[in-house]
Amino acid sequence: QVQLVESGGGVVQPGGSLRLSCAASGFIFSSYGMHWVRQAPGKGLEWVAFIRYDGSNTYYTDSVKGRFTISRDNSRNTLYLQMDSLRVGDTALYYCAKDIVVAGPPDGFDLWGQGTMVTVSS
Amino acid sequence: DIQMTQSPSSLSASVGDRVTITCRASQTISSYLNWYQQKPGKAPKLLIYTATSLQSGVPSRFRGSGSGTDFTLTISSLQPEDFATYYCQQSYTTPLTFGQGTKVEIK
After folding, report:
1. What's the gap in Å between the CA of B103 and the closest CA on chain A?
2. Which of A94, A89, A122 has the alpha carbon at shortest distance from A8?
3. Residue A60: CA atoms inside 13 Å, Cβ hemisphere, count?
4. B25, B4 contact by CB (below 8 A)
């Protein structure tokens, strides 16, 4: 069925690294841009990053620029988020999400995974 | 960055009530506005895209309106399954930004 399944979350110390993965199925993954969106415990939604359908362009929110890297492997239908130099403030549930528009610029999110929790704590 | 401000932050309503949530952008965003519903412990769900278009499978009691800087989500007759938190999100430019959310609670 049409779904996104995240993995890779966990507990890490400040300054550490994690790599999140998102396995896509049920749709033509290589035709859609993909996002990471996070939600700190008890807080609202925050967009983190976007990658175009072909990986040609990436966009980030300022707070993660230079620390996080979004990438994709269209042959494996998988999205990634490499998270380096993690901070306490990065603690959140991380969702991957499919963009609404085929092969378009960043827009909205019409399919979400269940999320993977990242906790940054000493 | 474009700031999105929702009002109210929370509201109490009864089943059958008409509910209106507003979202204001800090600059014009044309119709690049999406609405989401999030229930506790669940991922958000897209309700409305480009300000007025109903996402497939979403009940017709949900309606989006507005353009420029001021937008509205209206639930014409609140149902038990509609008690949730609602977020607006602009897609005019990156960084994509969300409103702070409006929690709709049972009165």
Report:
1. 11
2. A94
3. 13
4. yes
Mean pLDDT computed over every residue of chain A: 97
Residue B71 pLDDT > 90, yes or no?
yes
Label residue B16 exposed, middle or buried (CB < 10 Å: 0-12, 13-18, 19+). Answer: exposed
> Residue A97's pLDDT is what?
98
Chain B residues with CB-CB distance to A44 below 8 A = 87, 98-101
User: What digits encode the pLDDT tens for the residues A105-121?
Assistant: 999 999 999 999 999 99
- The alpha carbon of residue A23 is apart from the nearest alpha carbon of chain B, in Å, by 16
A45 vs B32, B46, B98: nearest CB: B98
B87 in contact with chain A, both atoms CB, cutoff 8 A:
yes
pLDDT at res. A22? 98
Task: Name the β-bridge partners of B87.
Answer: B36
Q: Return the pLDDT at B107.
A: 87
Would the CB atoms of B34 and A62 count as touching at under 8 Å? no
Q: Which residues of B59-73 are buried (b: 16+ CB within 10 A; e: fewer)?
A: eeebbbebeeeebeb
